Amino acid sequence: GVIEAIVVFDHSDPDVSLESDDASRPVKVVVNGRKPGLAGARNTGIDLATSYYVAFCDDDDTWSPDKLSHQVAALTASGRLMAVGSIEVHYEDTVTRRSPDMNPIHFDDLLRSRITEAHPSTFLFCRSLLDEIGYVDEALPGAYAEDYEYLLRAAKVKPIEVAPEATTTVLWHTASFFIENWQTRIDALTYLLDAYPEFQTEPTGLARVQGQIAFAHAAIGNKSDARHWAKSTMRSSWREGRAYLALLVSTGIVSADRVVAFIQRRGRGI
Predict the structure, then answer these.
(1) Which helix (H) or strand (E) holds 6?
(2) Cross-strand bridge partners of residue 98
(3) Phi then psi for 50, rounded to 5 degrees?
(4) CB neighbours of 253 closer than 8 A, spacing ≥ 6?
(5) How far apart are CA 59 and CA 67, in angstroms?
(6) pTM of the model
(7) How many helices (H) does the chain have, and how many strands (E)?
(8) Cβ-count burial of 256 within 10 angstroms (0-12 exposed, 13-18 middle, 19+ buried)?
(9) Could you tell me the CA-to-CA distances from 118 to 47, 88, 123, 229 in Å, in that order?
(10) With CB atoms 3.0 to 4.6 Å apart as the test, which of 50, 91, 169, 239 could cross-link to 62 if both were Cys?
(11) pLDDT tens across 78-112, in order?
């Protein structure tokens, strides 16, 4: 089938040499015409897309040639509105393959876990989903976790299909915008907790987000805030390891950068 690619440039000059009028693989180059940032860039692409299905692919990721075929088949068979796939994470010299361990993914599953295997570059959804839940949330501070918030909204409408054969290669590297922008993480994750009071009914998921906030505070040297959020994390679930990592970083014994690098080598994020 026809795959229409819309390349959205955000905070940079567009490279029009990428454009193509190939009838089966047309490529259009545009500039983010909405709020600067990832959410606005995604929505700019959605605005211009003309197809029945819409998919995302971040600029440092790569789809396998049959990724879309597997997902379209899965959505057709299941009657669901959105599908994700598997990821192959590349970090320095380490490669880790990961796939969601459930199918489908329900809203409660996403409250408990971010399910990072459901990466935004694996997203494929029917345009009709937009009528149900709207566009990517541009109000999220720094557009951090906009993909997770979109999954939560989508799963409230209908469970999300998993097509494990649909693979996306994901490149993780220290140049990522969000690796060091800890205050943005704090603001966005606090926004999420306010937007989804359902977290209060899922202690494991609540502790995960609280632990991320605690770690972010520790990373920028907010020792008292880090300890406050770490204690809140442990009250929600004493098993949440991010609380202990936040306390460790807040003491200065180990740096946040070392912790993040250690975790990313194992194909995971903080």
Answers:
(1) strand 5-9
(2) 87
(3) -115, 0
(4) none
(5) 16
(6) 0.91
(7) 10, 8
(8) buried
(9) 23, 12, 7, 27
(10) 169
(11) 999 999 999 999 888 888 899 999 999 999 999 99
